Structure prediction request, 433 residues.
Amino acid sequence: MSDAPDLHLPATSEPLRVAIRRLRWYREAFARQLEELQADYGLGFTVDDRKLARIFVDWLREMEAQKPADPSQRRAYFDFVSALMLRNLLRDMPLKAEPLPQGADLNRAEYFWPEGFACTVFCLNIRAAVLEQEFHAETALTPDFFNLRQWWSFRENASSDPNAAMGFFDVFTGNNPEWQMPDSFRQRLNRALAAPDRQTEISSR
Amino acid sequence: MPSRLPRPPIDTAPIKDVARSLRFAVEQGGRSLRKGLPLDALPEPAARLADVALHTARRISDSAGRGASSLAHVLLDGDDTPPPLSHPEEAAAEARFAAAAHDGLRAALLRLGAESCLVSEAAAVAAWRRVTRAAEGSDSETAAALYLALIDPPAVREVVWGESATPPAEPAKVATFAVLLAMLADPAEYQALLPAAADLALALVPDLVQAADRTALKTLFEDFRNHV
Prediction:
């Protein structure tokens, strides 16, 4: 992903879709992302490892429960589980940001909401890396990712309903967002089949 | 014809347990003494006497511990990885399992916030014997049986928590599950996997509390062995 903060993933001999489902690798990748944010933006965080492990276990279970049998749905499923990972991270937030660097511009997303920004770029980067490896697909972020109004709305909505984070994740990745039942993969597929061209306006949210 | 009969294998676990129990008792005694009776505040010669007594006791327990440890290393031939649970018949599997279980249980308990703990390696040997004598089925089934055998009678004898620590519910179960999960995940990477296995086990406390029988435990091991 060229236009979001980088993530140099830990080495693995396994496909990324397998490695990300191992806590040791997941944790290392998450730590790497935080290091990159520290280097690029001066953001510091403390991580609650126990909380991160619980988030990981919940994510595994929800992901496994909704795994599609049809191989043609794999691509959509990877988008879904990436958004689900973000939902769980934001819902149970394992990060606490340290004081911002001096002169930090609060009109930039990374300083406006450091914890949310860190979790979001981590999930975006993991998704991008998996899609590239599995489908040779290039990914890009929409302009909404760089719009502070979106981040303001994202933070507000996600704090009252963590599921809303999944819709915003879709918005940032250019996917058609599902706002009604974002944590149901089946609902997502049904909706895509029923109205493939429908684009939901999020400005009203 | 050989002039001497081959020596029977020596079971070092009880020797190591004695040395470790002694060291644990000395450390605990010293800790209690320092808490209840500050040596700095004692008048002479009482302070000096107490100090000398503590140092002597620690020296004896350290020396016993070193002796037992070097004996164990000679016998284990430097292999400190646990045996694959799918092959309990491997050479020195019993001793390797017991040593790895002892070290792993300690490491997991410390990861959970314990300040100090006493784990019986002989109990791990006994658990291994009990389970592998009647072993049938998959390695996950063996892990489930070992879990129950390490919990009762308990291999974790004592755990001391620091004043600021928040002990989890059922710490011995959490540590035991973590050890066996790491062994199942990859015996060669056992040590490196323990912290993640301990955190996973901690996240699974509600499941561990509920999983009373071997079948439920086996399912839990199977569900998470590839996710450490």
Observations:
- Residues 16-141 of chain A form one domain.
- The CA atoms of residues 158 and 165 of chain A lie 5 Å apart.
- Strands of chain A lie at 45-47, 95-97.
- The two ends of chain A are 27 Å apart (CA to CA).
